[in-house]
């Protein structure tokens, strides 16, 4: 490669490497920068689907196949976690929404909550779990199985709970979800075949940095109207933000409690995964044809999604250190003399 070209590529690569090294700080900063620059939202909103495709592709590209196969040999835990996130969560949310009359009183919010509950976990969940020192492999395997069946479960629950609220039919929703996931998986497979898993692992930090750039594009597109909405209807906007935090931490706490028998650290990893729903996938599948309240709620969910890894990292590291200390103590008692 000529020196001029090498120099041209070296600077962006160094920038992406630095950005990728910032970890949860960069993820947390994305949401505030996106909200603070509203013009970017209008500019980038047409590219929501493309941003989601790239994020999915990066995640599929980095799947550790050896770890994946290892967990699939012990399917009981993965099957239980998958059933909880793809079936248990939307059933509970749907029943609560109908029991409280949300369908009639606030159809836009009902649609937002159901799409959130029907979505698969975020593809970035394993990376965030790893950054926090949690069991990223368990998160990854459950993410893969949940993502594989979400076109079917989402279509099913859309027909049960969203009659007349969606601009597309439940069958079309399922087909579009399948198409998006299949296209991302195909692109990721080609990239792995061309460059190899070792090269992908060697360039972990610049890929992390590129992932954060795409997250920023998505966050800007979805949060472009947040400041305007906050000025126009502050109480409503703040109420939706509080609801987004409440839903996030409720899913996190309930999941951690349900799976506490496998160990608090691993249960927290699953809780993180279940609470981080891939709303971008739903936006892409519906082509963004959603009511303003749904858009605003989706924007508010970005705050807990981006902030919680940064806030929860100290807790996760304490749990991990405690588990390691307990394991060493047990091994010490078991060793002779």
UniProtKB/TrEMBL annotation:
InterPro entries: Na+/solute_symporter_sf
Keywords: Membrane, Transmembrane, Transmembrane helix
This protein's record includes keyword ATP-binding: no
The keyword Membrane is annotated on this UniProt entry: yes
Transmembrane region(s): 52-69, 76-97, 109-131, 138-161, 173-195, 207-224, 236-259, 279-300
The protein's name: Na+-dependent transporter
Organism: Bradyrhizobium guangdongense
């Amino acid at each position: 490669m000529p020196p001029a070209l090498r120099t041209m590529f070296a600077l962006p690569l160094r920038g992406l490497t630095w950005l990728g090294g910032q970890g949860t700080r960069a993820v947390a900063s994305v949401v505030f920068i996106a909200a603070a620059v509203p013009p970017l939202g209008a500019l980038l909103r047409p590219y929501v689907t493309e941003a989601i495709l790239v994020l999915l592709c990066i995640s599929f590209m980095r799947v550790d196949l050896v770890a994946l196969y290892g967990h699939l040999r012990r399917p009981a835990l993965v099957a239980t976690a998958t059933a909880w996130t793809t079936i248990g969560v939307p059933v509970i949310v749907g029943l609560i929404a109908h029991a409280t009359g949300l369908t009639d009183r606030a159809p836009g919010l009902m649609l937002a909550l159901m799409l959130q509950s029907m979505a698969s976990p975020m593809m970035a969940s394993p990376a965030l779990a790893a950054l926090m020192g949690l069991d990223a492999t368990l998160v990854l395997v459950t993410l893969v199985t949940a993502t594989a069946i979400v076109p079917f479960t989402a279509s099913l629950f859309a027909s049960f709970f969203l009659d007349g609220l969606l601009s597309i039919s439940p069958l079309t929703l399922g087909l579009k979800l399948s198409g998006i996931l299949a296209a991302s998986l195909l692109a990721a497979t080609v990239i792995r075949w061309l460059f190899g898993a070792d090269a992908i692992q060697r360039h972990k930090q610049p890929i992390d940095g590129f992932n954060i750039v795409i997250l920023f594009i998505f966050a800007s597109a979805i949060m472009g109207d947040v400041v305007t909405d906050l000025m126009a209807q502050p109480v409503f906007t703040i109420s939706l933000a509080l609801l987004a935090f409440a839903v996030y931490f409720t899913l996190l706490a309930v999941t951690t409690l349900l799976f506490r028998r496998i160990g608090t650290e691993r249960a927290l990893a699953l809780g993180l995964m279940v609470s981080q729903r891939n709303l971008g996938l739903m936006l892409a599948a519906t082509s963004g044809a959603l009511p303003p309240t749904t858009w605003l709620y989706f924007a508010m969910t970005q705050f807990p999604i981006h902030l919680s890894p940064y806030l929860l990292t100290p807790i996760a590291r304490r749990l991990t250190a405690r588990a390691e200390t307990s394991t060493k103590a047990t091994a010490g008692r078991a060793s002779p003399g």
